[in-house]
Amino acid sequence: MARISAALILCTLVTVYLDACARRPQAPPPAPPPVAEVQPTPQTRRFMATAYSLEGRTASGRKAKPGIVAADPKVLPVGSRIRISDAGEYSGVYTVADTGRAIKGHELDIYIANDAAARRFGRRAVQVEVMQGAADSPR
What we know:
Distance between the termini: 102 Å
Order of helices and strands: HEEEEEHE
Number of helices: 2
CATH superfamily of the domain at 44-132: RlpA-like domain
CATH architecture of the domain at 44-132: Beta Barrel
Strand order of the largest sheet: 1-5-2-4-3-6
Shape: rod-shaped
CATH topology of the domain at 44-132: Barwin-like endoglucanases
Strand content: 25-35%
Helix content: 10-25%
Structural class: alpha/beta
Radius of gyration: 33 Å
Largest sheet: 6 strands, mixed, barrel
C-alpha cells in the first residue's frame, strides 16, 4: 500500500510539474536582424545610358559595332572594359571605344546597330562596373 501511495504521489507531482511547464508563457522568438539595403559596390557606379546606331569610326579608330560604348573620357577612358547591368537585353561586357560631345560625366551611349531598337532603348539608369581600366588594357 505504501508503494501505491508513493507511486500515486510521484505521478501527481510529475503531472502538476508538467502542467505548470505547459502553461508557462514561451519567450518570443528573437527578432530577425534588420535587412540591409543593397548598395552598389565601390566598383559599381550608376550611369545614365542612351543608345546610338551611327556607323563609322570611333574615337579609338575602331569601327562602331555591338560591344562598343561611348563615354566621357574623363570618367571612363577609351580602352576601358566595363560590365553594364540593368540594361535589359543590352546588359553585358563592353569596351569604351568612343566619346561624344554630348556625353558628359556619368553618361554612356551604347552602340545598337538597329535604329529602331536604339530609339526604343531610350534613356535609362544602368549600373557600370569597371573591369579593366584603359591603363590596364593590353596594347
